[in-house]
Amino acid sequence: MSRTWLSPGVAYLTRGLLSVVVPAASSVIIVLRLASLKGVRISPWLISAVVLGAAPLGFAAYVLADEISQKRKANRLGARLVPRIHGKLPGNLDKVVKMVLRNENEYLGRPIEDEIKVLGPTINFRFFWEDLILTTEPQHIKTILATDFDNYVKGAKFREAADSVLGTGVFNSDGEIWKLHRTMTRPFFTHDRISHFEIFDRHADHAITLAKKRFRAGLAIDFQDLISRFTLDSASEFLFGHCIDSLSAGLPYPHNATESTNAIQGDNAAANFAYAFSQAQQAINRRVSIGQTWPLVEILADGTAQHMKVVNAFLDPILKDALEKRSTTVEFDKKEFADDQTLVDHLVNLTSDFKIIKDETLNILLAGRDTTASTLTSVIYLLAMHPEFLTRLREEIISKVGLTRRPTYDDIKEMKYLRAVLNETLRLFPAVPFDIRENICDTTWISPEDGKKPLFIPKGTMLSYSVLLMHRRTDLWGPDALEFDPDRWLDERVKKYLIPNPFIFLPFNAGPRICLGQQFAYNEMSFMVIRLLQNFSAITLSPEPAMRPPAWWAEKGGRQAIEQFRPRNHLTLYAMGGMWVKMEAVDDGEVID
User: Which member of 27, 51, 141, 253 has the greatest number of CB atoms within 10 A?
Assistant: First the structure.
């Protein structure tokens, strides 16, 4: 059903109305038929009661039957139901409201973590009588991603929520369509292509120049904003052969600056594209968080429509131009890339289907921009919080490449401490903190508690897994799991924790859906960190009011007590209010030395 003329809310209510009208009408017909056979006159009040009561009674019967069915199936499989959250109101309404309210100001994942402490690492929220199972258990996540991969899909629920943005791209498809997108994209992420650093270098220089100009004026920058532009420009040129040039828009100013951010940025098409793309992702996350009833908050219009108009207006001409060029150029070998061939060039050589090309490029652009920008933002934050690690990392960088030379692929491979810093950042702040699947068939998961029956997972259940919470479990990573310590990747803790159980670290997913761009991301992040620390010798936080956590966070335990920003997530993790920092530029004397 097209969303161009019918809002998701109206479509949902229409379907819902049919589900109410049919049982109500059936009930009335049955009552009237029985009455006519007995020669009894039916009161209008009784008919009204039947009409009004049919739907809720039918739903209650469905819930009861589903409960009984689940218990019987679990018993047949020698299993037990997943531990459930129990609220005081029907459908766990009080828990829903509390969680929504807490999520506004709480630390990312804390409301879930509180429930896990009571019920264990795998729990069922059972909101509005709908199963929603979340796990932080490595063996369960391994089952989902690898050992029983075919039984777990993105599923119709997620596809419906994300379709207006991601279409049928690789992140929003299953089965043969997913295989098609995966097969088309894989050749692009070969070693020869991901180790070409000219694009990174050009955009890194632009970003660093903008940052230095602000720092010379004594002003902080929102590093999250700057690095998101760097990754967007790099990804768009790498994938499309067309730079979006979002760095050309003026950087935002701190709240107390005399200059106006709006006046500087003006009507910049690239900035508008970047903002709209981000807002569209926010809408997807909101839909997924609400569950199947998300259309009810989009009664008047599709919540992504206006944002996607901006995205489409910017992207469509680029893709159409590539399709037009295809008919006038020599066709490439469909199995190989020419040196100057982009992903779009490759896709248009495989298919002329505009939707397939657009969906795939937009999906890959999302991954190429947001996940890398998220991790680089977290790297800078953690180095600002831990200057001793920054100093040590700079020493490695300068010893390998000096203060001016552009790093090569081989240089990056040799920088063990740099990789340790990136891995430790990905452990504490994974770019995708939560992900979702849906199981096709009834199944069981091993019990996370020794000596207990396995857990029964009914088919069609929405399953969420959190690598963010798993990465921070002290029973998996040791008593210092909440601390930022890159040395854990270089000392005996690797052998003690990670090697025996590799599925405790999954920043790029695993199994058949493992991120194709993993090495590309490591290269881009490494390159940018090297360039930054060649140019800057110190980093300090300069929090804006919107970035600062509530004062009461300091009274809590764990990382929440020490955090100096507010981590949030849509499809990827980001810093609410930005990541405002100042950096000390390397002076000419240090460069000469």
Answer: 141
